[in-house]
């Protein structure tokens, strides 16, 4: 009892707390007794204290091996803030000058330093090894120990060299700590560190205050801005997988009046730590970061963590979401998911050693399975970490808005048979073409229209079949061969299912491709139920009036999707109008004045609350491609060369040209059209558009004759017409 009392006294003395949290006290006793210890404690559970307090109490210096310079600095500052002597904690890494390094070594040798933080890379340097041989080491603490495991989400090869170096420096007890580890990762860590006999402390992974949700990745910027504006003043972290995306998103948020900064490993360290400090000091509300941000960042009141890109593993996801609501208060964890992102991550694995690909593929499969599941997300997450939870949590999107599921046992069998019939040598897209009976060039050339499976699934769309393949993969019936990228193979479980089909519930609501496609194809016209029908009708009347005044077809002024967007966003200034779909600066200036006047008085008369958070302003660097195309056309480069240099198909380039012209920029593409169409044909199409009701390409082809013109011809002439008549 006396020892326990003394421990609580020490806790009060050094950290000002009067009681321990969870298993902290047991862990600390284990370390004080000289045992090897393995600590698995979720973010926010108080892992750091498990080695900080024993280090302050024991004789000698504790060596803390930690993966990030920013994390070490943060921890050292935190320890120093509890005492009067700065020498009590130091870090030794490549960021120090020679003089500073000598100061650290002097403090350690003199016995002033109780905690010495070292990066694994610094630990392997011979002069550091020689120096540490002369230090009285109380114990080694290995923080973020999941970095040791190849199955862990932040694998660092240098972490696997810790054990031999510890042996060389001198034996002392080891405490390994991590916030995320499956049973496999835990065993890997203990084996690598030679501590299979260690005492294991495992806290529950359940954080009841965290709300988990996965949303379709449709216009994610709009969703993010809307969410942040509805949660004004709250702290949040948004994770992206690439540095480029981090910078673009941070800039978009800033342009939309949100206090946000970027953080990634490619920035110089002064900017990076400056941005981190501004977040901690609440000078900014949001940090947009790669996964490098947040390890050991002890900010208790992060209210939301968003994942712009789905993470590579559930462990990474769990650890990153764990940075929300560490004070026990609200924490919203929202991930944006598109299966295309999983495919992109799979592509990155090509060319890596096969063993690494296998691991990566399994981790991605677990992530996709979490994103697409219809069951309680918390049950699924806890189960992943080997913890059982009987009742649904009531605090995730699947509990609060259950997904629709449909019986698809018959469809799964049809899909498996189609894979078998093509000898497991084709990708999902090709097999779905066979099932839906599509006569593509590939289907014809391989004579796959003669197969039994051809057309056997034409009662569903190809998007439906892609969902069947994906969820069969998640259910462990088929595998995707990464080496031969994307070929579908049936495994033993799949063969058993074909012989003896079981019930198979397909999650319909998470058929994300379908949602994405709907979003891309819907122009948001009020007839589809979005927008303000009364305003839309008024805008159409105004457009007609202006068109008559200028003697132009109405679609040249603004197209329907633009009017529809106006009836949703209610822009009341030219500045706001230029961000409406298909408008841009030129058109806003030329035709916008009367439109914004009409909208302004409509808003005032009807006392409308405008969804300002949805007027997402875009960032100038998004228009780099646009500028490149305009310059290339000024230089009269061939369209094929322009498209090739940007890795575009010709039809994609034409789409870009349409967007440029529709938003009010004048382009002269005569030099290209003159090579494609003679003068008479050009005149015929031009006259057609002058009289046309709308700008439909199909209607033009029907009227002018498909044997006379291609779709490309009509689109190019429409660009010329819009440019000359409207801009």
Structure overview:
There is one protein chain. By secondary structure, the chain is an alpha/beta fold. It contains 35 helices and 17 strands. The strands form four sheets. It has a seven-stranded parallel β-sheet, with helices on both faces. Helix 8 links the parallel strand 5 (137-142) and strand 6 (174-178). Helix 2 packs parallel to helix 3, helix 24 packs across helix 28 and helix 31 runs parallel beside helix 35 (711-726). The longest helix has 22 residues, at 584-605. It starts with a helix and ends with a helix.
Shape designation? globular
Rg measurement, Å: 31 Å
CATH superfamily assignment of the largest domain? P-loop containing nucleotide triphosphate hydrolases
Spans of 5+ residues with little confidence (pLDDT < 50)? 510-530
CATH class of the largest domain: Alpha Beta
- The CATH architecture category of the largest domain equals 3-Layer(aba) Sandwich
Side by side, the strands of the main sheet go: 3-4-2-5-6-1-7
CATH topology of the largest domain: Rossmann fold
Number of helices: 35
Chain-averaged pLDDT: 84
The portion of residues forming beta strands comes to 5-15%
EC number: 5.6.2.4
Pfam family, one: RecQ-1-like_HTH
Family: Belongs to the helicase family. RecQ subfamily.
Protein name: DNA helicase RecQ
